[in-house]
Give the backbone structure.
Amino acid sequence: MPLFYDEDFIKHRQTSYHPECPERLVRILQMMEQLELDAEILPVRPARREQLTLVHDGSYLDMLANFGEGPYDPDTYVRPETYSIAEKAAGASIAAAKDTLRNGRSNIVLARPPGHHSGRNYAGGFCYLNNVAIAARALQKEENITRVAILDLDVHHGNGTSDVFYGDESVLYISTHQWGIYPGTGPIESVGEGTGEGFNINFPLRQGMGDGTLRDAIDRVIRPVLEAFTPKAILMSLGGDGHYADPLGGLSLSSQGYVEAYLVAHRMAEEMGLPGATYFLEGGYNIDAQAEVVWGIHEGFSGRTLDYKFTDVEDPHGMGSDIVDRVIDVHKDYWDL
Ligand SMILES: [Zn+2]
């Protein structure tokens, strides 16, 4: 299975002691060697300007490219090289999504900086260019893909992705996230607008929720909605920060539970006759737990299971079933739930 990675992705740095650090990727690559996993690393090219402007304003791109060095916001620092590395991350994302289509295989993009908090004309939350959104638009424009589903299981709501597609019925955005933390968006009532109404689905979860709740959300909402939407591509925002070991997030997913939830996209793609699913690295700040989740997904593509170290299961029965009930209540107007 190929990996979409470039050495520049470990050259991207925020401020010192920032959780979104190069070691996140270094550890993933170390674990690949330790486990003697077989993954082919493919070269990546920067996204072209006309691909970036499928999502971002040209004036925003110019601002970022000429920013120099300093804080964009208290969480998100810009250096002279940030923009060119972000262009490469977006390029890797497009290449991976196209490779899934053309070669019929699920792929993981191991890129930094992440993207899902970046919108049309803003950065934030360690993100500058929205990799998954750019890949979705590139598939639509360059591969004539009509409907794209984006599933985001990062512990944070992907406000950037949500904003980009909020009025667009051609891109379904579904997010599970912890409520009450950054960025504060993504309540159940945010369902999209105009012709995009019903195509934005949010599960704002409470602290402590994990495997059981995610399974419940998948079985009762995510699966039936994806089946009804019949996407031509499934893209996953791959965050490892919903893991119980994560220092920033407060959800309680185990490695196995998280991996199983992520593999739903890969398996549903198979069931629906799609060539595979594409996964884009977002957050994840316990570098061991995150690496385990990434490789668990990767091995799952071939039907294998990793020997997990993080095995606690704190929410086996789905303590968030009331939230799933409320999501159904709101979205039964749009979907057969
Ligand atoms: Zn996150």
